[in-house]
Write a structure and sequence with these properties.
The structure is a homodimer of 310-residue chains. Chain A has helices spanning 9-21, 46-55, 73-80, 91-105, 110-120, 148-154, 178-184, 195-203, 208-214, 235-241, 248-255, 272-277, 292-301, and strands spanning 2-6, 27-31, 37-39, 42-44, 126-129, 138-141, 144-147, 161-165, 187-190, 219-222, 225-226, 229-230, 261-265, 281-285. Chain A is an alpha/beta fold and 310 residues long. Chain A has a domain at 1-33 and 123-305: Rossmann fold (3-Layer(aba) Sandwich), CATH 3.40.50.10680. The longest helix of chain A is centred in the first third of the chain and has 15 residues, at 91-105. Chains A, B: This is 2-phospho-L-lactate transferase.
Amino acid sequence: MILVLAGGVGAAKFLEGLVQVVPPDQIVAVVNTGDDFVLHGLMITPDLDIVTCTLADLIDREQGWGLAGDTTACLEWLGKLGGPTWFTLGDRDLALHIRRSALLREGWTLSQVADSFRQALGVAVRIVPMSDDPAPTHIVTDAGEIHFEHYFVQRRAQDRVHGVRLHAAGPAQPAPGLLDLIAQAERILIAPSNPVVSIGPILALPGVEAALHASAAPIVAVSPIVGGAAIKGPAAPLMRAMGYEVSALGIATIYAELADTLVIDQQDHDLAAPIRALGLQVVVTDTIMRGPVEKARLAACTLKDTGNRN
Amino acid sequence: MILVLAGGVGAAKFLEGLVQVVPPDQIVAVVNTGDDFVLHGLMITPDLDIVTCTLADLIDREQGWGLAGDTTACLEWLGKLGGPTWFTLGDRDLALHIRRSALLREGWTLSQVADSFRQALGVAVRIVPMSDDPAPTHIVTDAGEIHFEHYFVQRRAQDRVHGVRLHAAGPAQPAPGLLDLIAQAERILIAPSNPVVSIGPILALPGVEAALHASAAPIVAVSPIVGGAAIKGPAAPLMRAMGYEVSALGIATIYAELADTLVIDQQDHDLAAPIRALGLQVVVTDTIMRGPVEKARLAACTLKDTGNRN
């Protein structure tokens, strides 16, 4: 079984490659829930939905989020009735949030909801939220401490960032079985996701880092930073605020103690030596996931035997 | 000020007539909430929505409920995710339910939500839910005691009815100010709505019947039964189950102690004498509300001075 620590769009694309080279039912995606938030009284789980709907081939591929061909009749009317409209919610998309919220109120756990949804949508990859507890990621900005989605979507990542507060609602436990999954995994992959607000919240769960250190499986991370910039999303300002260089070397610094291997883009080949100096194996390849071929090739790179420090 | 006790479709059409002959801001509609129920974790208030959206000229006129031109993308996806689909919810329609549920969870009362919605949709008639408390109407059937919407919509009114339980969630109070509104009204109209499950729940609220009896205003009811059948909805089986004849005379029996005048259809002119014998004034007219002209004429009939027993 291959375990993938996953955020949103980058992880979803990476997983689309992985299912081409590994039987999907042998893959478990552990998905960040730090972006989850309540809007219109509905529990919205952006990364879980992006991963699930991308693997179900339902995603709007231009945006990377939302459902292909979705309409926004409901959102327009929510606006007419005085509701917030800064977070785009399609009509089909809303069904996920309505149904999820209803099931959670009925006593289902988020893990159960996520599993039910991926099965309903025909996804063979097992999808596990990192935690069944609320674990919101807050961004400390000049405008105050605000939820990640307020920072990123509502305020368009324009506030100066001073820091990040993970699990801002209080202690969160790993989802049931997550530590066992880490222990059982034959290979652990860290998707090309934001290390601060996508992978960071997973690693911050009690027992997760220890379980990763204890695992004998190779741990291979893919750098989400190419040529000194993030492919998508606010990794740059957030890495900078946390004191990391915005580069594949910065990513290496973050994962040096945890991973065995870092996959970096060919544009960053000159960083291979300094990254190796941090004790990581390095694979240099094309990491830009333009289409199915590139996705599969990148996934295959993360499966190569590059040695394991343990 | 004219107060109208209102159910759903019949009341909404009647109010469309009334606003043609009375300034809308001098009309208060007190709307049944016995049909309200929770589905998909959302609070759905059928009669409030029918009245509000009809007066806003947004209603689907063929159905009498739902919004004109609405789509059902969300509902189809709720079905894909295992949610119930027996109650049709359009995408725009859902915005009302989502926003209402969110505001109620934020601590708004149903009265506040109803007032906010009618203002947002440009309705000048004041719309007051009968109660801010849950007051579900249950139907006692061969299949057990079920909520009215389960009986009427999900099971298509096919179960044998043994009785009706109003306010089945426990004691409900009249909405704030409702008793004062009754005391202040210059005329009180009972819309052509189901007497058992639309008007009945309003009358059953503590203090409402007493306030109506104490009022010096003429009380004029319009029979929803024409030629021994309901224009729409399950009035017939419900009246029968409650021991009433399904006729304008049956309606007269129900309202005899409460109303001064009953407006009946010309088809039922032979019932005028027995209705008068019950102590009610009778107005015989065309009560079928085919279009704006008929609606206005019916409304005008309810404003004629036919005397007041008080």
